[in-house]
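FORM 12-B: Structure-to-Sequence Request
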């Protein structure tokens, strides 16, 4: 009999997404379904999803504490493998703005209450099931927004087993005591061995303390979060649960990210036709009004503009790199101060540095195809997906040795035959400059550069291996 898995998260592509969490929750369930699991995905009923997918059926009506009007669970018609459900709580989710913030860019002040309500609804759904009788064997939840689900399920007998995945420990879902009292949680959970965290509640601890198994999105990050430097004050708790913590590398959707069939590209290509990649480089140079010179080393980044991503390190390094035969492109938005610095440096070096402030899905695909190298100097990176897209597209990554970047990019100094990119050890602009010089030197040796490209393009970064690892965890939970 197929394992029944309920995925619960605050976002999932293509329905609602702000980052890597949505990418994972949009892709992994499909891979699990292909591996023989029976998967359903439950999301908050955001206004944007209900507007775009107006055809739904009511699968259940839940009695949820703190929501006396009742909560409908809607099934989106046309999604079968996996099916997608929406927790229709208009008071909390039928709003303008994005998933977590209002139109002014500020977080909704009631975010912890919104996602506590969602967690209560997921718990009720997991315990009582849909009207067709479907009940999960395992509930798999993600990040602080669903961290309360393992805590709430722990008091039920019988209950499904729980898996909690940490995508980014830095986001902990903090709230004060007054807010905690409005979350309809057992008062005893205001305790340092439960949710209390230095005078606040941290909703992520509901998952960290109570889930049957913990996972995170790369082996290196699983080790890093057990240290003082990366543990965000939770390293002691995670060391105490190390026996149930596993790091499983994320994958990517090879149908969406496929240079041989990507409709966004001006020229498609594959490992046997890497030379066709050049047309995409020329397109980027034209679009960004850079000199149309194929000998220029074209680097770039597609990212949320934040110090975590090391964008400031790139900006510090660029003046020292502009005397070299290279060009640099930025695509992203985020910290207004970093946006201004990008605009300012492009004004000083318009033949070397250009940008697109904002996000553009089509342009992101064109960037991964047209760049020669992708720069990713993140200070910490639980997994990272951009370096996986780069490898897939024959765009050589230049990364800081941290988290999933360390797990997915092989430096020539480590293994010349299997090398896929360049890795530097210190999150500093000087280390980044050295790595850029190393990459530029290899770029001018076409045979060595093409070996890096082909090595990266042959890496198996699909969800196949990851799905098998998760399925093994689920199986171990339901048989013990």
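FORM 12-B RESPONSE
SEQUENCE OUT:
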């Amino acid at each position: 009999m197929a394992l029944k898995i309920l995925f619960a998260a605050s976002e999932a592509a293509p329905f609602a997404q702000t980052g890597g969490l949505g990418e994972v929750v949009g892709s992994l369930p499909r891979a699990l379904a292909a591996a023989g699991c029976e998967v359903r995905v439950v999301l908050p009923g955001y206004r944007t999803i209900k507007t775009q997918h107006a055809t739904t059926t009511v699968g259940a009506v839940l009695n949820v504490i703190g929501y006396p009007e009742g909560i409908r669970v809607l099934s989106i018609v046309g999604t079968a493998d996996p099916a997608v459900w929406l927790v229709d709580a208009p008071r909390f989710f039928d709003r303008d703005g994005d998933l977590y913030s209002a139109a002014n860019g500020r977080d909704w002040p009631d975010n912890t209450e919104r996602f506590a309500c969602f967690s209560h609804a997921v718990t009720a759904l997991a315990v009582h099931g849909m009207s067709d009788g479907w009940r999960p064997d395992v509930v798999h939840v993600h990040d602080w927004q669903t961290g309360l689900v393992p805590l709430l399920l722990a008091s039920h007998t019988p209950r499904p087993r729980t898996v909690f995945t940490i995508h980014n420990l830095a986001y902990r879902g903090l709230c004060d005591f007054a807010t905690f009292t409005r979350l309809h949680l057992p008062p005893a959970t205001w305790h340092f061995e439960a949710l209390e965290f230095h005078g606040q509640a941290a909703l992520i601890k509901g998952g960290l303390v109570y889930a049957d198994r913990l996972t995170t999105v790369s082996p290196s990050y699983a080790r890093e979060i057990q240290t003082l430097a990366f543990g965000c004050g939770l390293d002691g708790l995670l060391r105490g649960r190390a026996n149930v913590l596993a790091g499983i590398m994320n994958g990517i959707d090879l149908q969406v990210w496929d240079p041989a069939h990507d409709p966004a590209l001006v020229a498609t290509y594959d490992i046997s036709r890497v030379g066709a990649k050049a047309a995409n480089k020329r397109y980027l140079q034209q679009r960004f009004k850079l000199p149309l010179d194929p000998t220029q080393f074209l680097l770039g980044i597609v990212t949320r503009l934040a110090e975590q991503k090391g964008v400031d390190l790139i900006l510090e390094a660029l003046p020292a790199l502009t005397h070299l035969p290279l060009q640099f492109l930025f695509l992203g938005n985020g910290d207004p101060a970093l946006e201004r610095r990008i605009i300012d440096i492009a004004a000083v070096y318009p033949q070397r540095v250009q940008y697109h402030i904002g996000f553009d899905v089509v342009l992101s695909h064109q960037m991964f195809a047209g760049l020669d190298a992708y720069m990713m100097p993140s200070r910490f990176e639980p997994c990272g997906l951009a370096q996986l897209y780069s490898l897939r597209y024959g765009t050589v990554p230049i990364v800081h040795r941290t988290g999933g970047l360390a797990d997915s990019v092989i430096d020539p100094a480590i293994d010349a035959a299997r090398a896929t990119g360049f890795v530097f050890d210190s999150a500093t602009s000087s280390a980044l400059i050295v790595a850029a010089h190393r990459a530029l030197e290899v770029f001018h040796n076409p045979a060595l550069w093409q070996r890096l490209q082909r090595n990266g393009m042959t890496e198996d970064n699909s969800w196949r291996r990851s799905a098998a690892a998760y399925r093994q965890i689920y199986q171990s939970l339901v048989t013990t």
